[in-house]
Specification:
The protein is an alpha+beta fold. It is built from four helices and six strands; from the N terminus they run ββαβαββαβα.
Length: 145
């Protein structure tokens, strides 16, 4: 299975009306069907943001650096795949599907060791059918051109 790095971006809104930018990964049907990546791991990153709830330039730069590092570390042997990113309303959420949350946690700690303590929290759930990904992928109809 070949992992592409094709993404789409769409717009959504939070309950309070703030804008949410949804970035979803394309071409993951084979990974979804293989049934090896059953655990969904969501990383929540709260940030100060601007008056519209979007990250400041400095926050966005740090979040991009961390995201790139995590994606590289987790995807090198397909332990986990980054499938979606939600940014807005003073929070960024990274959604991974993983083989095992235990090893994911170990790699997460190793990958983030070079950074100062980050304001993140994690949520783990079994999601063998990739329900979150399927719901997120429906946002593609609202893709930003």
């Amino acid at each position: 299975m070949k992992l592409s790095n094709e993404w789409f971006s769409a717009l959504s809104t939070a309950e309070n009306g703030n804008l949410i930018i949804v970035s979803g990964r394309e071409e993951l049907d084979e990974f979804k069907a293989c049934q090896k990546l059953k655990e969904r791991i969501e990383i929540y990153w709260k940030y100060e943001g601007d008056e519209k709830g979007m990250p400041t330039d400095a926050e966005a730069e740090l979040m991009e650096t961390v995201q790139e590092k995590l994606q590289k570390v987790m995807e090198k042997d397909k332990l986990a795949i980054l499938t979606g990113v939600y940014t807005g309303d003073k929070e960024r959420t990274l959604v991974f599907y993983a083989r095992t949350s235990r090893v994911f946690g170990e790699r997460l700690n190793e990958a983030l060791a070079e950074f100062d303590l980050l304001p993140i929290s994690l949520y783990v759930e079994m999601d063998e059918e990739w329900d979150e990904y399927t719901d997120m992928y429906e946002m593609k109809e609202f893709e930003i051109e």
